[in-house]
Amino acid sequence: MLGVVVGALRRHEVGAHEEFELRVAPQDLPELGLADDLRVHGRLTNLGEEGIHAAIDVEGAIARECARCLAPVRVPVRATSEETFGASGPWTSIVEDTLDLEPMVNEAVLLEEPLRALCRPDCAGICPTCGKDLNEGPCGCTDDEVDPRLEPLKKLLGPREEKR
Ligand SMILES: [Zn+2]
Ligand SMILES: [Zn+2]
After folding, report:
1. 58 CA to middle of ligand 1, Å?
2. Contact 24/4 with Cβ under 8 angstroms?
3. Closest ligand to 132 CA?
4. I want to staple 102 with a disulfide (CB 3.0 to 4.6 A). Which of 2, 4, 65, 115 is the partner?
5. Given 3-state DSSP classes, what are the helix, strand and coil percentages for the chain, each rounded to the nearest 5?
6. pLDDT tens track of the chain, all 164 residues?
7. What's the 126 CA to ligand 2 centre distance in angstroms?
8. What pTM was computed for the model?
């Protein structure tokens, strides 16, 4: 829960607004996998009967793995989002004068998630045969050489193991 108290704002006139600043630690929103603290800046506007309008911008970074070599990657995140939170009705999102911004912040951050995080655009990845990180240099195996060499080895080792 990322609660923001809006009780005082709702007792103000329609159109009244206030700003807030939150620092969210990675353990507060564990499902996001934040790399470090997320800064949330927001502006809340009282819409009277219609509730509260929230506009936020978030800034921080998420920790991911490179899709090619699995090295840790820090993906910077910068996003804005807007939403109106109803004060009454079937989907009341303001409970006891507190507005929970967690779903809104989660969505804003996850929309920035890259489909494939890469440690660098030209990451060479890891060799599918020997597992060596090819960013550190070539591993020496090529597809043509390795497979024929491994086939006879398998034939020799297979039956021997079964006899034991
Ligand atoms: Zn990589
Ligand atoms: Zn290799």
Report:
1. 26
2. no
3. 2
4. 2
5. 30, 35, 40
6. 889 999 899 899 999 999 999 999 999 999 999 999 999 999 999 999 888 999 999 999 999 999 999 999 999 999 999 999 886 655 567 778 889 899 999 999 999 999 999 999 999 999 999 999 999 999 988 755 545 556 665 555 555 444 44
7. 8
8. 0.76
Q: Order across the sheet with 17-24: list the strands.
A: 17-24, 38-46, 52-65, 72-85
Q: In degrees, to the nearest 5, what angle opens at C-alpha 26 toward C-alphas 101 and 67?
A: 110
Domain boundaries, the chain: 3-110, 134-163
CA distance 112 to 62: 10
Which residues have their alpha-adjacent CB atom under 5 A from ion ligand 1? 66, 68-69, 71, 119, 123
Distance, in Å, from the CA atom of 35 to the CA atom of 30, rounded to the nearest integer, reads 10
Question: Ligand 2 being an ion, which residues bring their Cβ within 5 A of it?
Answer: 127, 129-130, 139, 141
Ligand 2 mean position, distance from CA 19 (Å): 55
Integer Rg of the chain from CA: 26
Which one of the ligands is nearest to 140 CA?
2
Q: Which numbered ligand comes closest to the C-alpha of 131?
A: 2
